[in-house]
Structures are given as structure tokens and as C-alpha cells.
Design goal:
Order of helices and strands: EEEHEEEHEEEHHEHEEHEHEHEHEHE
Number of helices: 10
Number of strands: 17
Largest sheet: 7 strands, mixed
Number of domains: 2
Structural class: alpha/beta
CATH architecture of the largest domain: Alpha-Beta Complex
Distance between the termini: 10 Å
CATH class of the largest domain: Alpha Beta
CATH topology of the largest domain: Quinone Oxidoreductase, Chain A, domain 1
Radius of gyration: 20 Å
Helix content: 10-25%
Shape: globular
Amino acid sequence: MRALVFDKNGLENLKVMDVEKPQLDPHSVLIRVRAASVNPVDYATVVSIRNVTPIPHIPGAEFAGVVEAVGDHVKEVKPGDRVAVYSRLFDGSCDMCLAGQEMLCRKGGLIGIVSNGGYAEYAVVPAKNVFRVSDNIEWELAASLSIGALTAYHALRLASVSPGEVVVVVGASGNTGLFAVQLAKIMGAKVVAVTRKQWLREFGADEVVDLDNAYKAVERISGGSMADVVIDPQGTQTISKSIKLLGTNGRVVTFGALTGDELRISIREVFSKQLRIIGSTGGTRREMLDLVRMAEERKLRVKVWRSYDLDHGVDALKNLFSSERDGKIMILP
């Protein structure tokens, strides 16, 4: 099969190669990949993460496709089923897994980092990681559920968003942001999208504003009480301003550090306004099931900027941080 492969860090080392089709074990599923997302974690996997395995390595953490074959013990799916892949590997036996928090598995990791991923014609994953999706879910959406949508959904649930609350999404046009906007709206919130992309109104944003003007917009839409929740995956360059947008009992949720991982805050502001700073990572399989059902009910959409084949996969990763990017980037093997 054809796949994007690297044997040491660096985009210059990512090449399209002919490699052996992965082999099934009794509890796994062979998938013909139809679409794979390009996320910051995939870029980092190729460029900077040192402990990927195996080497040579196929990246790609978020993907969907058609079941080609199943292991002898697999009963949940059959050849021909359309599936989305839950990106977190987990053992199912540690305290985190038994508490229903598979993304925090003590011995787990991310597909595409601790195992080969989906930037290939075929991929093998454990059967417990696949979710059947119906024909009315487009491949690009199916391949955006397990990181883009799931990360946003888990973060909003950790923040306990309630109907009528004001939710601010920083980086709203990004891979997680466009789902955070939609999901917050589904939860009944008033949504402020922090971005210059006006198309976020079509995805449920009540206000679209850049960060420099966000304070006044939040003040206006909240009647002066400010935001109940801010979702901020950006990091150092935005997080301090995000905290300033919060009102009393406000919650800021972070799950990324694209612009750095350091934070300077006023402790007095945190305790006097009774703020909460919440870290979030990934999401559970139960939440993944929720998202599949929402997608089947056509409550979720995805905006794709560009799609690339394997031969142009390096260009896909290079363009992830392009100022011209206007939606998601997909690889279609």
C-alpha cells in the first residue's frame, strides 16, 4: 500500500512510500482510509515529537474509512461498514479506563504517535476504537469527530455549559473552534466567536469579533456580566486576555498551547471572581458516540479549505499554519 512515512523528524523526511499492508490481530480491524484530518498534533508528530513508534512511522491521528477485514474475535463491525476511528488507544483495565476516562489511560496514547496512523491507504486499529457511521455523514466530517469535535465537546462538558450562558470561543475558525461554536450553540449558549472569519455565523456564532474587540462585544452581549465560559486552545498569546473576558464564577478551558505554554495571571482576580481554570484533553468514547449521533442528525458540519492526496501530503502539513487557511485541511488517500 501507499503511505506517508518518515524515519526521523522533519517535513523534509516525510515521503510517500510503498509499504506492506498492516496485519490484523484477532481483536483489530483493517480500514481502507477514505479521509484523514490534518491537525497540529500531526504536524508535531512529524516535526518535533521524539518518542513516536514504530519507526519508520506513518502519522495521522484522526481518520475514517471502510472496514476491509476484521480479526477472528471481532463481532462489533463487519467488512463494508463505514467507520470513524476513536483516536485514543487504551487498555480498558486501569483506574482511568474503568472510570470511563479512556483518554487518560495510564498505558494509552494517541494513534498516529504510539502506533501507525491514517495517512495511508490502509490502517489497522483495535475494534473497540471504531464507531459505525451512516451513509449520510460525509467522510470529511466522519474524519473530524475524534479530535476536532471530541476535544471541543469534552471541554464544553467539563465547563458544564448551561442554556443561556455566554460562551466565548478563541480561535473559532480552527479545527476545534468550529466545532466548539456549533456544540456550544446546541447546548443553548450565546456564542461569541473570536476570529476574523465571518462564516462562523453560519455555524452558530451570535457574534464574530477579533480578540482586541472581544471585551466590548462580550460586555454587550452579556449585559455587563461578561462571559460564563471561554474556550481557549491558543496558549500564551491569548489566555490572559481570555481570562479578562470572564465574569463572576467564570470558567476558562484550555486544551492547547499553539502560541506557547506559559501563563501570567492575577491570583487576586481568580479568587475574587471565583474563577476556574480547567485543563482538558481529548474525550471519552461515550462522548464520541454522542457526536456520531449528532452528525447523523445533521447537527454538525465541517468546513474544508483544501484536500490533498498522499503525493501532496507534505503540502497539507505545511499549509496548516498558513495565514490563508480558511477551514480544515484533509488528506484523501
